[in-house]
UniProtKB/TrEMBL annotation:
Residues 23-501 form the Aldehyde dehydrogenase domain. This is Aldehyde dehydrogenase domain-containing protein. Belongs to the aldehyde dehydrogenase family. One of its GO terms (biological process) is cellular detoxification of aldehyde.
Length: 505
């Protein structure tokens, strides 16, 4: 079934604008490997124009249009955006799937989460009005103090490719709720920059749904400049945004390597950053579990979104007494995963997002083999599919903690396995990583779950499950997985600055 691909420009100052240098990036469908369209690529010149537009959205009419409008006014726009996205869900979900390769049912679930997230932040925007001028209790009666929460200003929102519209929404919705004006930079694969310059098109991708958000903003008459959308190459559009003197904050989701560059650029102008980075998530499975349920969560945690989740369950740490039985059932479940065109009914595993990522995942698997690990299941391209960047669900055993497969983020459907004897050993293995995003513990022993949850060095811990994510709960990491939190009230606070006013009475 052919999906019409909309042809869009950059979204700047409330309307579509051709990139000043007229550059475009081709879009490759990872299932068919065909070019299905292209999108504009912003350069530093376009970034400048967009930042100016955002700045004037905050100052126009002395800021009363947006930044200092009541939260209720901003909530009205956020709800209108949510309603339009709901209307367009079938189209947006299909675009997400042809763009990234995730099963259609998953893209549909993403769109529901996008709608829910805009609605949630609409409620918080309204609630913000009541929180203004919150009094502070002081020890001296001759003074009184209160707090005003103000939008930070112009914010750059730089996002990755695994959940294009959802990751964008996690930033856009709270930023707009807070009263900021934003420049959203969707992803391409930064690693193919050099190839792009050579006009090679085979590994580039883009994010169609993020551009459709521009059309939604137009339809709801969002005040001009409040949200600008600039797809482009990371080292070009992304780097210009990160170092731009009139950007007040950067919220970034992506790899740890890029985060270091962004922090370095931000440090030159003492700009705040929120960093949501990679992971190497453990799932610790104790001996007292219902094995089938634990296997189901492990499969979900590792293979959902084709394994391309920052908090994916990529290390299984299973008690030695149930390991053989557990792995046996894990393999049986894996055999039943339907790998197909992600638009096909019942698909559970689509292609990896691009050829570049596919090759990276395959390299991890072959390095694991040459380092002495065993490929218990998968490890290849599925034979029944002639095209597309597909990788079988892969389970790797005989892993040591010095192997690359244990230490580095794969970002593909690959699970590595280790067994343990004692609880202490399990926790030590789980924390044996530079990353600290999501971790899971599975046991029927409530006290043990509480104990292990406290000791896991992760920003999120899942008990008897893996990956559920709600826009009401904070999300973010420790260690190399970044700092700051998105979602919930914490997400809103990250776009607000706090001013205290103290009066002599
Ligand atoms: P990436 O770091 O390559 O790119 C992310 C974004 O940064 C893209 O928009 C890219 O264009 C931009 N970028 C690249 N170079 C830049 C530069 N020099 N200056 C400014 N911007 C630049 O990451 P990716 O490959 O798109 O995404 C995969 C990574 O994202 C994985 O490590 C994954 O774990 C992580 N991730 C984290 C979360 C989370 O919530 N913690 C969610 C999704 C993905």
């Amino acid at each position: 079934m052919a999906i019409p691909i909309p042809s869009r420009q950059l979204f700047i100052n409330g309307d579509w604008a051709e990139p000043l240098l007229k550059k475009r990036i081709p879009i490759i469908n990872p299932t068919t490997e065909e070019i299905i369209g292209d999108i504009p690529a912003a350069t530093a010149e376009d970034v400048d124009v967009a930042v100016q537009a955002a700045r004037s959205a905050l100052t126009r009419n002395k800021g009363k249009d947006w930044a200092f409008a009541s939260g209720a006014v901003r909530a009205k726009y956020l709800r209108a955006i949510a309603a339009k996205i709901k209307e367009r869900k079938p189209v947006l979900a299909k675009l997400e799937t042809v763009d990234c390769g995730k099963p259609l049912s998953e893209s549909e679930a993403d769109m529901d989460d996008v709608v829910g997230c805009f609605e949630y932040y609409a409620d918080l925007a309204e609630g913000l009005d009541a929180k203004q001028k919150a009094p502070i209790s002081l020890p001296m009666k001759t003074f009184k103090s209160y707090v005003i929460k103000e939008p930070i200003g112009v914010v750059a929102l730089i996002v990755p490719w695994n959940y294009p519209l959802l990751m964008a929404t996690w930033k856009v919705a709270p930023a707009l709720a807070a009263g900021c004006a934003a420049i959203l930079k969707p992803s391409e694969l930064a690693s193919v920059y050099a190839l792009h310059l050579l006009a090679s098109v085979f590994m580039l991708l883009s994010h169609l749904t993020c551009l459709e958000l521009g059309e939604v903003c137009r339809e709801v008459d969002l005040p001009a400049g409040v949200l600008n959308i600039l797809p482009g190459l990371g080292p070009e559009a992304g780097a210009s945004l990160a170092s731009h003197p009139h950007v007040d904050k950067i919220s970034f989701t992506g790899s740890t390597v890029t985060a270091v560059k962004i922090m370095t650029a931000a440090a030159q102008r003492v700009k705040p950053v929120t960093l949501e980075l990679g992971g190497k998530g453990p799932i610790v499975v104790f001996e007292d579990v219902d094995i089938d349920k634990a296997v189901e969560w492990t499969i979900f945690g590792c293979f959902y979104t084709n394994g391309q989740i920052c908090s994916a369950t990529s290390r299984l740490i299973v008690h030695e007494s149930i390991a053989a039985e557990f792995l046996d059932r894990l393999v049986k479940w894996s055999e039943n995963i339907k790998i197909s065109d992600p638009l096909e009914e019942g698909c559970k595993l689509g292609p990896i997002v691009s050829r570049g990522q596919y090759e990276k995942v395959m390299n991890f698997i072959s390095n694991a083999k040459s380092e002495g690990a065993t490929i218990l299941y998968g490890g290849n391209r599925p034979k029944h599919l002639k095209k597309g960047f597909f990788v079988e669900p892969t389970i790797i055993t005989d892993v040591t903690t010095s192997m690359q497969i244990w230490r580095e983020e794969v970002f593909g459907p690959v699970l590595c396995v280790k067994t343990f004897t004692t609880e202490e050993e399990a926790i030590e293995l789980a924390n044996d990583t530079h990353y600290g995003l999501g971790g899971a513990v599975v046991s029927k022993d409530r006290e043990r779950c509480d104990r292990v949850s406290k000791l896991l060095q992760n920003g999120a811990v899942w008990v008897n499950c893996s990956q559920p994510c709600f826009c009401q709960a904070p999300f973010g990491g420790t260690k190399w997985s970044g700092f700051g939190r998105e979602l919930g009230e914490w997400g809103l606070e990250s776009y607000l600055s706090v001013k205290q006013v103290t009066e002599y009475v």
